[in-house]
Amino acid sequence: MQALVLLNDPQFIEAARVLAEKLVRDCGKDTTKCITRGFRLTTGRMPKPREQALFQELYDEQLKRFRSDPTATEQYLKIGEQPPDKSLPAQQVAATAVLASALMNLDEFVTER
Question: What is the rounded distance in angstroms from the CA atom of residue 40 to the CA atom of residue 35?
Fold first, then answer.
């Protein structure tokens, strides 16, 4: 049940989008920096090389998907109460939001040890 909430609940999707907007503002088009910063913010540590590569692959796949389907981008970004930041590139924010959602589903983010 927890996994479904973390992946699909509008509050978590909106939280991931807001984090994505911050990352895009801070890092621009530097996805390596964006992944590293997002990983650090959500887990408190730097990503290992394999983790960095996996999240880069996820980002690239999602960016390609959102570029090919502008309607899906628009629908995804409007989830939640806070309106999306229209000054940022929509497809980049959407792909980064999926990345942020994945980061927010890591055990290190969800579980306090």
Answer: 8
User: Residue 32 and residue 18: Cα distance in Å, rounded?
Assistant: 19
Rounded-to-integer distance, Cα 31 and Cα 92, Å: 10
pLDDT digits (tens, 9 = 90+) for 24-46: 999 999 999 999 999 999 999 99
The CA distance from 99 to 57, in Å, is 10
- Classify residue 95 as exposed, middle or buried by CB count within 10 Å of its CB (0-12, 13-18, 19+): buried
Domain ranges of the chain: 2-110
- 10 Å CB burial of residue 98 (0-12, 13-18, 19+) is buried
- pTM of the model as a whole: 0.90
